[in-house]
Amino acid sequence: MQKHQLIKFAGGTLKRVGNKISITNKLLALIKNELIPYRKRDEWGFCTKDKKIIIECKYQEVYFYFENLAGIKKNNKWGFIDENGNEVIPCKYEQLYAFCNGYALVKENGWWGYIDNNGNQVIDCIYFEAHNFKSGLASVSDCGRWGLINKKGNQVIKCKYDWIDKFEDGLAIAEIDDKQGYIDTNGNEVIKLTYDNANPFINGLAVVEDQNKFFLINKESKKVRSLKYDKVGFFEEGLAEVELNNKYGYINQIGDLVIPLKYDYARGFNNGLAEVSMMEGYFDKYGYIDKNGFQIIPFIFDEAFPFYFEGEFAKVKISSKWGIIDRIGNQIVPCIYDEVSYFHDGLTIFKINGKYGYIDKTGQIVIDAMYDEADGFIEGIAKVKVNGQYGYINKKGEQYWED
Questions:
Q1: Cα 262 to Cα 278: distance, rounded to the nearest angstrom
Q2: pLDDT tens digits, residue range 340-376?
Q3: Structural domain harbouring 383
Q4: Is 3 within a domain?
């Protein structure tokens, strides 16, 4: 069994829909496009939505504004400017990320550290890898071993783990040498790292795998129930998919089988629906069921994805073509495209004949397929690539660049 096979769909964040289509909840939450990156040939600045240049186009690259500061690249080094274009943090870093919760990740001499929004080096650049702070903690790597630091730079959890998951229900999964267990926020190993796989705790219980056997355990590490299945999935919306003798069903959080083992494949629930497959003739066909096990959308699709985000729509495939359906199975976007994404800001990306464009929720093409790459719209702006150059467009397809 492959590592982390317990977790098939973590939900919440769609990291990549296709090779050129990507979006994250983090960006959706943080970006406010009051100033838009504007490109004049090979140099970048910022403009308003009506294309009034506010900050001169003189940089090699720019990022969007986060927490009132934007990353800019000059002479192959990165720094930050404020909304008036003042270089408030000098361009001296090899790489950086946008500000998040008052701190920004910066890279100097090959190592990562953190600065505050005044440019003060609050945590030295001493880490091989590092992530943004969340709830006062950030995961950092010291030459391949992971730990957690606080905003003072103190190692709350020493860098000794191969991998640390996020904290849920007060505990986080940690791994050393392919064995997993649980740590608390003080770094105590409250459940020893002895399991082949572990799932997060939910309401005081977690699924673990030990020598190809599955169990429900409590926070005292006591095995409260044996789960006699070949596979156990990740709990989503109170249910987890399970497999026994090549048939799938669903259990609840105390291990009771609540949807029978009758499907050829099953995935986790998202917004009340799950994709399941059954053999139709010689081929598996996907449809959707609700948490009572009732079929909501017929088994007619060759591939099917979850009802992510607001839960209104899902992407599906018939033969080799993709489209988008609503919660009762109507094809909002017909299955005629080589690739589609989810709706963001009212539009979805589609691909046809090697080019990308945008469709609205009525299925109408609002921006023709003309781009080599395309990202989802956020606050009315999307990043695209055409003729080897990146730039930004609005929902009318108007471009924020000049070549």
A1: 8
A2: 999 999 999 999 999 999 999 999 999 999 999 999 9
A3: 1-30+272-403
A4: yes
H-type helices in 65-196, by residue range?
none
Write the pLDDT tens digit of every residue in 248-268.
Answer: 999 999 999 999 999 999 999
pLDDT at 281 over 90: no
CA–CA dist 77, 95 (Å, integer): 7
pLDDT at 309 (0 to 100):
83
Amino acid at 258: V
**Beta strands per DSSP E along 60-169:** 61-66, 69-74, 77-81, 87-93, 95-96, 103-108, 111-116, 121-127, 129-130, 137-142, 145-150, 155-161, 163-164
Q: In terms of residues, how long is the chain?
A: 403
Q: Evaluate whether residue 67 is within a structural domain.
A: no
Ranges assigned E (strand) in 136-256: 137-142, 145-150, 155-161, 163-164, 172-176, 179-183, 189-195, 197-198, 205-210, 213-218, 223-227, 231-232, 239-244, 247-252
Instruction: Give the pLDDT confidence score for residue 33 in this predicted structure.
Output: 56
Give the side-chain half-sphere CA count within 13 A for 64.
17
Residue 235 tokens read as 């709990």
Residues 6+ apart with CB under 8 A from 377: 344, 345, 346, 347, 358, 395
∠ CA 241-7-198, nearest 5°, is: 105
The reply to whether 393 falls in a domain is yes
Does residue 260 form part of some domain?
no
The Cα diameter of the chain in Å comes to: 66
pLDDT for position 304: 97
What domain count does the chain have? 1
The pair of structure tokens assigned to 336 is 């005629």
Task: State phi, psi for 26 to the nearest 5 degrees.
Answer: -60, -45
